Amino acid sequence: MAEPTTSIVHYTFPTANGTVVSTLLEELKAVYGVPEYKTVHMSIRDADIGKVHNQVKSGWFLKINPNGRIPAVTHDGFSVFETSAILLYLAQQFDKDSKFSRSAVADPKGYSEEVQWLFFAHGGVGPMQGQANHFNLYAPEKLPYAINRYLNETRRLYAVVEKQLEGREFLLGTYGIADIKHGGIGPMHGQAGHFVLYAPEKIPYGADRYVAETRRLYAVVEKQLEGREFLLGTYGIVDIKIFGWTRFLERVGIPLEEFPNVKAWYERINARPAVHAGIATATPPAN
Known about the structure:
Distance between the termini: 39 Å
Domain GST N-terminal: 5-98
Organism: Phlebiopsis gigantea (strain 11061_1 CR5-6)
Helix content: 40-55%
Domain GST C-terminal: 107-287
Protein name: GST N-terminal domain-containing protein
Largest sheet: 4 strands, mixed
Pfam families: GST_C, GST_N
């Protein structure tokens, strides 16, 4: 386990994923008194590229996260990106009593269960609800936009892989699970295939597709919460991860009342002071 340190820097913006890491950091501080950390608020606006220093496509930030997304952290010079990877790293480093996570050594089956649900959140809830947000709130009326959106995102992700493979045979130098399963490409490439090959011409289809899938995923969460206060019985990083998205669920037209177990779970987490502290620290001060 890590010694107390002030060398963690958290790069973020208050999106669904952007408040998740700071929430865990605050939960750890409430129990252990560490880690202290610094928050750097980033711009995620494309209009700020080349104009704002703390923009996620800035060269200095791409050295921390080559995918140019928030959140990311640095710890003693070591960079970690992808929300779920950061949660697992921080838990490994600072959750010495397994208050918010499961130990891969002491509780391997519990750890596996935790990782399964963490990946469910990372690969299911986040991408699908994120696209529901997009089509409901931001998309223009022409379906070709959806096709171009996913093709361009797939192309951008493969450009990141191309850059990572410079001078390497495999993504991390030697063949491993990063090569077998590369997280960001699957959802985006799958949706590119869907819109290019199968989608009807009406843009409402896109909204309906993702809202329906988000609803289906929350039904899985609802079932998992039967007879439980939290997803794995006790509060931890899986709850923190999904809560980050649940805060925005009603924006896509899905009321929490549809899922009474989820609603009660949401209210339990929302009552935790560290959760509000984590959201607050990820939010830039008003000008």
